[in-house]
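Here is a typical sample entry:
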Amino acid sequence: MDEIDAAVVRKLTLRLVPFLFLLYIVAYLDRINVGFAALQMRQQLSFTDAVYGLGAGMFFAGYFFFQVPSNLALQRVGARRWIALLMMLWGVISASMILVRGPRSFYTLRFLLGAAEAGFFPGVILYLKNWFPARARARTVARFMTAAPLSGVVGGPLSGALLGLHLTAALAGWQWMFLLEGIPAVLLGGVALAYLVDRPEEALWLSQEERVWLVETLRHERSAVADDAGVFAALRSGPIWMLALVYFGLNTVSYGVSLWLPTLIRSLSGVSNFTVGVLSAIPYVAAAVAMVAVGLHSDRSGERRWHTAVPAFAGAVALTGAAYSTSVGPAILAISVAVLGVFSMMGPFWAMPTSLLSATAAAAGIAFINSVGNLGGFVGPYVIGLVRTSTGQFKGGLLLVGAALAASGAIALMASSGRE
């Protein structure tokens, strides 16, 4: 059985993870590229730090309100068709950011982008749950989610370079960036429709023996978890609420840092847009390696809580160092450690809720954690922008989001992680 286990997981990984990885790179880039657009559009459109911070975070308001309905729709429609539809929709909205003329249109389009992307990430987490055995789930999620830091590696230099198209064909550089980075989502949505398969029973690229083994293994794992079939079962689960709070603090830092990082680097160095893009990629290189290593170690040990909490504490300490940095070198180093900590939490964190619930309750529970948690993506950028508007510095905002990350680590130690 160990031999067929390894063979099936290997085939699943090679078939599904690279493609979903590519989709998530596009998704993550389309939500954070506004951080690079800010280098030009804030001055051109006369946005204050508070206006930009609110608009950057408005994505997560749309994300919050449409999260659970979108994930439940995925359950009915099927992952293949729903993910393809969402990608085409958000690609069009992302490209439409070229039409921003003031705060109102900025807020509206960011809200709509969040609404369109709301079902993608929890849908993929649910999709992976429906394909991978529990013992392979943390490292699989970690591999998929390395797309988030790697989108920073790819997107930083790319976005910085696209800003250099400023005033080409009467469009500003930030308009070219939104337009050219929105098109891949539309194209890949069509590819997803042809490439993805909804259920293991339909996986013709597995042998008959492998399909039977996988279906029976997943059925056995589902039967071992109490299936509280109501959609709102997650809302009655204390551990699910605690995990939502953990994810809130995680995203407060993740998006607070990523959406302000280009501006922070510019404020400390005054370098060109392209150099800002290259420097902003540094924290994400280390994070991509660390999150896979932590996810793999978590799977091998079967432990989830400490693998989530320790990176959170390390990231909180690093953000304190970044807050007191006065030059770009120490700031980049400290933020690299913070970003490494945040992304290292992802694999073991998402292995916890998938072990607590099954069936419809899992769809609602994953979506609930992601929707509440991603409100941190609204709070982080907005708080940093608000504090910077009041003080003219990043120090206070970085300290506040660092405190949120430390609280996440403490809550993770108290939360149930299912069958460890």
Summary: The domain at 2-414 is CATH 1.20.1250.20 (Growth Hormone; Chain: A;). The CA atoms of residues 77 and 198 lie 10 Å apart. The chain has one domain: 2-414.
